[in-house]
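Case study: Lipopolysaccharide assembly protein A domain-containing protein.
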Amino acid sequence: MQFLRTAFWVVVAVALALFCVANYTRVEVNLWGDLVMETKLPVLLIGAYLLGALPFWIMARATRWRMKRKLESTERALVAATAAPSSAPSFPAAADSPAAAPTLSTTGPA
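Here is what the predicted structure looks like once written out:
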């Protein structure tokens, strides 16, 4: 899997380098008023791509952070639930004598 990821990024880097070499021309960008910015085309396109990808990257990081916190909270609750004393509380055993056993009377309250 690591090889595929590395191969993918190598292909992307080579394609980007070929694009930059083929399109390395000066462009003028009219910003506002009389302000004009001169830049190279690859710099402009890569900057626009990164600026557009920034909100989605921030959203993905926030989602990952939120899910990580939720998972850690659930794991702590699971550890706390399983770390409870394993022995059940002991109650005194009921005596076998009929006087100690509760009786139900049909004639009135006990």
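For the exam, be able to explain this: The CA atoms of residues 12 and 18 lie 10 Å apart.
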